[in-house]
Amino acid sequence: MIRDRMNELIEILNRANYEYNTLDAPTITDQEYDNYLRELIKLEEKHPELKRSDSPTVRVGGEIVESFGKITHEIPMLSLSNVFNESEIIAFDERIRKEVSNPEYTCELKIDGLSVSLLYKNGKLVRGATRGDGVTGEDITHNVRTIKNIPLVLSEPIDIEIRGEIYMPKDSFEALNEERARNGMDLFANPRNAAAGSVRQLDSKVAASRNLSSFLYHLPEAEKFSLDSHYETLQFMKRLGFTVNPNIRKVSNIDELLGFIQEWTDKRNTLPYEIDGIVIKLDNLMDQKKMGYTAKYPRWATAYKFPAMEVYTKLKDIRFSVGRTGQVTPNAILEPVLLAGSTISKTTLHNEEYVTLRDIRIGDIVAIKKAGDVIPEVVKVLIERRNGTEIPFEMIHECPICGSSLVRLENEAAYYCKNPHCDAKKIEGLIHYASRDAMNIEGFGDSIVEDFYNMGYLKSFSDFYSLFQFKEELMELEGFGNKSIQNLLDSIESSKSNSLERLLFALGIRHVGKKTAKILAMYFHTMDHLQKATYDELVSVRDVGSIIAKSIVSYFENEDNNRVIDELRLAGVNMSFLGRPIELNEAFMNKTFVLTGSLESITREEAKEKIERFGGKTSSTVSSKTDVVIVGQKPGSKYDKAKELGIMIWTESEFISKIEIS
Ligand code: IVH
After folding, report:
1. pLDDT digit string (tens) for 412-471?
2. Which of 70, 98, 110, 238 is an active site residue?
3. Residue ranges in the chain modelled with pLDDT below 70
4. Is 577 domain-assigned?
5. Domain membership flag for residue 68
6. 323 and 465 part of one domain
7. Is residue 319 domain-shared with residue 254, that is, in the same domain?
8. Cα–Cα distance between 229 and 227 in angstroms, integer?
9. How many domains in the chain?
């Protein structure tokens, strides 16, 4: 009787575990689960002789081993060969194609955990083992049993060995490290180390508390189960009760394969666990057999490894640079390291505060991280690697180039060199003038501008336009020939016909970025108009606030700046806006519009374009900042919201009549 009840409870709880952890579709509540579990624990305590090895009560841990037993992998647990770039992926595919015609591959995520082998006898989990050296591993059964999505019983009573990865989800890793920090314990460097540390615990209660999880991806003897392909094998594994990673794709050519890799290179940060690459497996099991193995790896699979996103290196020195605005920036000079595919030897430390908050010292070993497209950052210091010779950071108070005293502006972390004749500022200003988003003078990279400045050819912006007079001399310079100088002169010449916004951005007026330059050029059309604009006229322009307006006024109050502009004008640089001008229209100027419903006589794109041309702005959400909502057929909730907020509403025909007036 009691035995029957215990068997029944085990069945209910194992099923509930599977539904909850593997299918993500529970059919009983947590409360019910806890009640069944408590009932089973009580019965097992009373009748220890009836306790079954596959009882879900093992999930809570408790079993303690004295040491890890050694186990032998009957079939060695091999690792994977690596590829790091497109050409190596193509070479892998070509090697396969030599022996297999029209191969198909299954692409999988490469889970950053530790590999595990699970052994089932008669459908029951009897052993979990680490890879070890591939032949001899360690018995970690007591800990594996605590991992909730590893089935203790399979849906079929078969003998099977199955392999996969144990990992720690990112949020569990962060919570664990936070707790360890609170208790003054050493932190784990990453989720993989934390997972490895957790399964190598003698007391299974520790592993049970660590919220580990698993993905299974390999069946060494798939042919025993009359499976034909790896893809099918994964489906079979799912049916047995294992968690298989859902992000898999079967591909049949190199473009699809590269597409999968690109997709996950972009999306990897959105996953709740870490991956370090993509595994590419030849799909057909007969073909796998044909390709065979080397001593270390299968020939039928490989792992594309993502470029490392975080690396450690030594910070050799901190040097200061002066930007075109005069801002003085501390830079980390690093022992060169490879990070995300490029070698890094220098990176910005932003400002004094950034360095002191992290207590970054010269001689420290630091972690450099790159996220997405941003420039690499020094994210932390490895304090434990200090040996006492590190030199604390000290901010400088004089310009490293011209020696004048630095000034710290109110509410800003940065220090500035205020000397207008400081060489560093001038060089940076010239580099900015020629840069791609500014005057786009091709060929003028940082070092050429600096060399030409130091040789006296380039001192101010207008000097670009008289460089042609020195053509013969320049051709004599080392590294330059007729052709390269002619190319430089050609790109200088074509920069003369840029539209006004490029010049406005190139001048380096404080607070005038690319977007503001465009708005100013559209509104004022010519440099002349802008030079004469008053503060009031400037602030009335959409997106121009008081800080920008003040900065522009003060720029044009400075005689030196006006002289530079005169010189450029004289050199033939275009001073007007060449795009489609704004046709100011009172009904639209400086107002924010929201469109809702479908418009009949005009497309949405055209409507937006008109609104912007007449000096208005469009937005997709209705708020108190909205001035007008234009309502077409079948308007949505934006219409209701507009009525609720008392915002002005125009019908489509009202809108059209207002555009037609202009
Ligand atoms: S297949 C014989 N698939 O990566 C094939 N391995 O660097 C065995 N790994 O030792 C491995 N995700 O620990 C395979 N989807 C995946 C994987 C994966 C992570 C690990 C595994 C392996 C290592 C090789």
Report:
1. 889 999 998 899 999 999 999 999 999 999 999 888 999 999 899 999 999 999 999 999
2. 110
3. 341, 371-374, 581-582, 661-662
4. no
5. no
6. no
7. no
8. 6
9. 6
| Closest protein CA for atom 23 of ligand 1 | 79
Count CB-CB contacts under 10 A for residue 631: 23
Task: Show which of 477, 495, 513 is a domain's final residue.
Answer: 495
Ligand 1 site-directed mutation target among 80, 166, 192, most atoms within 8 Å of CB: 80
Are 56 and 151 within 8 A, CB to CB? no
Q: Which amino acid is it at 444?
A: F
C-alpha distance from residue 276 to each of 87, 268, 292 (Å): 19, 9, 25
Please tell me whether residues 318 and 169 are part of one structural domain: no
Active site annotation includes 110: yes
pLDDT score of 371? 61
Q: Which residues form ligand 1's pocket by a CB distance below 6 Å?
A: 78-80, 108, 110-111, 115, 165, 217-218, 279, 298, 301, 303
Sign of the CA dihedral with 594 first, then 600, 603, and 609 last? negative
Strand partners, 106: 250, 281
For residues 298 and 318, membership in a common domain is answered with no
Q: What is the pTM of this model?
A: 0.55
Same domain, 104 and 176: yes
Instruction: Round the average pLDDT of the chain to a whole number and report it.
Output: 91
Two tokens, residue 176? 């664990």
Does residue 347 sit in the same domain as residue 451? no
Task: Tell me the chain's radius of gyration from C-alpha atoms.
Answer: 34
Copy the structure tokens of residue 110: 């490469």
The CA 488 to ligand 1 mean position distance, Å, reads: 52
Ligand 1: residue of 117, 214, 217 to mutate (most ligand atoms within 8 A of CB) is 217
Side chain identity, residue 507:
L
